[in-house]
Design goal:
This protein is an alpha/beta fold. The protein is 32% helix and 12% strand.
């Protein structure tokens, strides 16, 4: 892919519906399940990127990265993968939103954390509401596990208007035989300094 190449996209089926994967020059720029016409979703992403993605079966595509993303998603939904090893392009995310989403990446597989806990981990203890905004507007779902962020009372909260998907993902991860390590072989990371003793308090 050269600097002049447009972003590329592929639609990948999953148990929670179709997932749109868009790859730009520096990696995956968005990966998100969508509900509705593909054309409308492509138009939405085009406005964000200021460039219209084209199907990945055209010249100059990145089949290696698309195949890696598709394979890792399938393994995740099969219960065989607890972490993702994919290059993410964070260019659509800035400021505290970026810090919050990177903190979300440290929530261990099979556990949940409250918005306030994520705010602490991101370095802004009073920014729980902003964490909610970051999760609601993230360009990355599943590979950045915003589904693991719940309300202080332990209730799920919204997930792009699809709390059923959030429940499915949490149930998938908390099912029997939850592995203790990610597929990359790295141990699940501890809560960042300043956070509570466990991400799983849900407060």
């Amino acid at each position: 892919m050269t600097p002049t190449d447009p972003p590329r996209y592929r639609v990948h089926p999953s148990p929670i519906g179709d997932i749109l994967i868009v790859i730009a020059e520096n990696g995956i720029v968005t990966l998100h399940p969508f509900d509705g016409p593909l054309d409308a979703e492509i138009e939405r992403v085009s406005l964000l990127l200021r460039a219209a993605p084209v199907p990945d079966d055209e010249a100059g595509a990145r089949p290696d990265l698309f195949e890696a993303a598709a394979s890792q998603l399938d393994e995740y939904f099969d219960g065989a993968r607890t972490g993702f090893d994919l290059p993410l392009d964070w260019s659509l995310v800035r400021g505290f939103t970026l810090a919050a989403l990177q903190a979300v990446c440290d929530i261990p597989y099979g556990e949940t954390a409250g918005y306030g806990e994520v705010a602490i981990a991101a370095g802004a203890p009073r920014a729980a509401r902003a964490v909610g905004t970051a999760c609601a507007t993230t360009p990355f779902s599943i590979v950045v596990p915003v589904h693991r962020v719940v309300r202080a009372d332990g209730s799920l909260g919204e997930y792009g208007g699809r709390p059923d998907i959030k429940r499915y993902l949490i149930d998938l991860e908390q099912g029997p035989g939850t592995p203790a390590e990610s597929e990359s072989g790295r141990s699940i990371p501890p809560a960042p300094p300043g956070a509570r003793d466990s991400w799983a308090t849900g407060e």
